[in-house]
Amino acid sequence: MNKEVILTEISFKAVRSSGAGGQNVNKVATKVILTFLIFKSKGLTEDEITLLQTKLQTKISQEGVFQLACDEDRSQLKNKELAIKRFFDVLKKALQKPKERKATKIPRAVKEKRLTAKKEISALKQNRKKPNI
């Protein structure tokens, strides 16, 4: 993943934000929508594109467009910075490969404890029987 190349491929759109803010909401377009074309990206390898396609399939359109909106702040610039930060966090998390699980060996003490418990229960049941004379 090449961040510099990806930054050039990102496009932004400013929209009027909803929610609190008074007259400022009605006048100024502070909400920022970040769009990124995953399939046409030169900053990602083919393996990374397929991995993103599987991990982010609910957030990507059929055309391969990833959209992320940010309207937390009343400033368009801050919302733009927040959107970029979140975008790279999402990419980083999606491209992270999970660790393979190593099968652990059952300790000898645990096996012995289980076998002794079985023997004790067996002896208890044997003692319940009538003596065979």
From TrEMBL:
SUPFAM superfamilies named in the record: Release factor (SSF75620)
Listed EC numbers: 3.1.1.29
Domain named Prokaryotic-type class I peptide chain release factors: residues: 16-32
Keywords: Hydrolase
Record-linked InterPro entries: Pep_chain_release_fac_I, Pep_chain_release_fac_I_sf
Region forming the signal peptide: none
Class in the EC hierarchy, top level: hydrolase
A GO molecular function held by the record: peptidyl-tRNA hydrolase activity
Similarity field: Belongs to the prokaryotic/mitochondrial release factor family.
NCBIfam families, sorted: PRK09256.1
Protein name: Alternative ribosome rescue aminoacyl-tRNA hydrolase ArfB
